[in-house]
């Protein structure tokens, strides 16, 4: 066979794409993505709520027991408790929203996107929040006249924590959102998919 | 670039050039699951690349470059994955194979699959009528190197054709 003939064989696929989309399988895949996003979002929320309520309570109780008048530490404890409660409210609202999702592929995909957007915003807010907690903590540590080494250790701990949060924000949440957006684009534009179908 | 503009370009590119992406996917991934994953990865990279496109080359060339880069990286990644003996997850395939217009096309893809990642890219580009200069630019090798490689696998391909078809 000559190369030109090979090329002709090759060109036959130009007018007839090699693949089509199995809509049922696609819906299953989208559902799996939605559930996985929901699961991760829920775990993130629970971890944040527990950490804030626990840390806030511990700070509050320990200062109360000591009869401390360290206003900065008390304010930080209070801020953590309020944040924990606020996160509970956000979680409640998200669960309500999840229950109102229509069961079409588009509904499922939009819900997955809503959840990932929510996680992106939460993660971004938590980075700023961590900075605030870091400032409060370092101020408290300096105020309580701890050694320089201790202050440095606390600072390094926060720097690493914030750095890791930023990494997670960029590489996990943002990239996941891009993947979902690309999937949505692919579905809408490439496949002429009937979204209203359950 | 605003989001709606990016989406519009993405729509147009995929509508016009999805066949090109399928070719690369078929040449680099060999199971239905892998093909889907690779297709999704290629589509994602295409979407990300839109703001970087400066119209210095044809859209098809740009898309080929992206798809081939992803395909080559994919080969390395899949090899590593298989070496680690991780079981592939059981998910029903989304991409449904259509009837192949010419059965010799299957044979051709099988032959392409036996080449290494770079030669595979060159074969696809050659079959789609790209010049040596374009191929060299896309793959980051010299034009003479392109020529040598193409001559070598063309001869090999012809030999196999005579034996098998």
SSE blueprint and pairings:
The complex is a heterodimer of chains A (198) and B (165).
Chain A: H1 3-11, E1 19-21, H2 23-66, H3 71-99, H4 105-143, H5 148-190
Chain B: H1 3-28, H2 32-49, H3 59-83, E1 95-97, H4 104-113, H5 117-127, H6 132-139, H7 143-164
Helix pairs in contact in B: 1-2, 1-3, 1-5, 2-3, 3-5, 5-7, 6-7
Report on the structure:
The complex is a heterodimer of chains A (198) and B (165). Chain A has 198 residues and is mainly alpha-helical. Chain A has one domain (38-190). Chain A has helices spanning 3-11, 23-66, 71-99, 105-143, 148-190, and one strand at 19-21. The longest helix of chain A is centred in the first third of the chain and has 44 residues, at 23-66. Chain A starts with a helix and ends in an 8-residue tail after the last helix. Chain B has 2 domains: 1-97, RNA polymerase sigma factor, region 2, helix turn helix motif (Rna Polymerase Sigma Factor, Chain: A, Orthogonal Bundle); 99-165, Arc Repressor Mutant, subunit A. Chain B is built from 7 helices and 1 strand. In chain B, helix 1 packs antiparallel against helix 2 (32-49), helix 1 (3-28) packs across helix 5 and helix 3 (59-83) runs antiparallel to helix 5 (117-127). Chain B is globular and about 55 Å long.
* CATH architecture label name of the largest domain in chain B: Orthogonal Bundle
| String of helices and strands of chain B | HHHEHHHH
* Global morphology of chain A: elongated
Tally of alpha and pi helices of chain A = 5
How many helices of chain B does DSSP assign?
7
Keywords, separated by commas or semicolons:
heterodimer; A: 198 residues; mainly alpha; 5 helices; disordered C terminus; B: 165 residues; Rna Polymerase Sigma Factor, Chain: A; Arc Repressor Mutant, subunit A
């Amino acid at each position: 066979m000559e190369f030109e003939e090979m090329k002709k064989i090759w060109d036959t696929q130009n007018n007839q794409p090699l693949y089509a989309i199995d809509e049922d399988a696609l819906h299953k895949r989208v559902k799996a993505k939605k559930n996985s996003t929901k699961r991760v979002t829920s775990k993130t929320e629970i971890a944040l709520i527990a950490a804030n309520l626990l840390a806030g309570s511990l700070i509050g109780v320990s200062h109360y027991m000591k009869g401390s008048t360290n206003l900065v530490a008390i304010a930080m404890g209070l801020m953590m408790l309020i944040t924990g409660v606020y996160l509970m409210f956000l979680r409640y609202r998200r669960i309500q929203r999840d229950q109102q999702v229509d069961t079409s592929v588009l509904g499922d995909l939009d819900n997955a996107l809503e959840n990932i957007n929510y996680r992106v915003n939460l993660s971004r807010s938590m980075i700023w929040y961590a900075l605030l907690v870091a400032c409060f903590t370092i101020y408290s540590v300096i105020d309580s006249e701890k050694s320089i080494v201790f202050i440095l250790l606390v600072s390094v701990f926060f720097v690493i924590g914030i750095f890791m949060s930023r990494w997670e924000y960029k590489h996990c949440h943002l990239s996941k959102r891009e993947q979902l957006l690309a999937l949505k684009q692919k579905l809408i534009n490439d496949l002429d998919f009937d979204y209203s179908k359950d | 670039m605003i989001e709606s503009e990016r989406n519009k370009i993405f729509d147009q590119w995929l509508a016009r050039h999805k066949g090109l992406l399928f070719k690369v996917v078929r040449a680099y991934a060999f199971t239905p699951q892998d093909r889907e994953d690779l297709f999704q990865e290629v589509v994602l990279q295409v979407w990300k690349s839109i703001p970087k496109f400066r119209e210095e080359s044809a859209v098809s060339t740009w898309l080929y470059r992206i798809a081939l880069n992803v395909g080559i990286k994919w080969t390395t990644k899949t090899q590593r994955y298989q070496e680690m003996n991780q079981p592939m997850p059981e998910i029903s395939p989304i991409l449904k194979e259509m009837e192949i217009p010419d059965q010799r096309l299957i044979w051709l893809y099988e032959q392409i699959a036996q080449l290494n990642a770079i030669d595979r890219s060159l074969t696809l580009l050659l079959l789609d009528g790209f010049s040596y200069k374009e191929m060299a630019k896309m793959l980051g090798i010299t034009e003479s190197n392109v020529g040598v490689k193409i001559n070598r696998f063309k001869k090999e391909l012809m030999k196999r054709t005579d034996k098998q078809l």
